[in-house]
Amino acid sequence: MFDLEAELQKLCASGEASGPIDNLTINQAEMQLDVKFPSQYRQILKKHGAFVANGVELYGILTDKNDEPSVWIDIVEETKKLKEWEQAGTEREGFIPFSDDGCGVYFFFDTMASPSTKIHAIGPGIDKFVSDNLYDFIIKSSRNEFFL
Fold this sequence. Notes:
Elements: H1 4-14, E1 16-17, H2 23-33, H3 39-47, E2 51-53, E3 56-58, H4 75-84, E4 95-100, E5 106-110, E6 119-123, E7 126-131, H5 134-142
Antiparallel strand pairs: 1-2, 2-3, 4-5, 5-6, 6-7
C-alpha cells in the first residue's frame, strides 16, 4: 500500500526545508490572516516549515525576518502582497495561496473547509479544484502528474 506520509517525508528529505515551526507561531500566522490552516499543512509546518523539493515549493512561516532576501516565501507576506496586487483568487473568502507553478498559476487552500484540505488552482485560463489531500498534491506535483 502506498503510504503518502512516508513518501512525503522522503521527498522533503531530498530537498531543502526552513525548519520546524512551533504551534504558537502557526497560530499567530493564522490570526494575521484570519483563517485556520488545514491540518495537513499545520503538520508539514511543524515538521519541515517551508520547503523546496523536486520542483515543488511550499510557502511557510518565516521566523527570522532580517533585511536580507529570504530563500523561503512567507505565507502571510505572500498572501498580503497578492491581495494588494489583486491576484485572481485572493478576492475569495478564505483562499490562501500556499504554492505556485512559476508560470502564474497559484495554488490556494480554501480555509473555509479547515481542518480538511481543499486545494484550488487559479491562474491564466485555470480556475479549478485540484485536490483534497496536501500530501498527495505535493507528491504528484513533484512527479509532474498534475495536468492543469
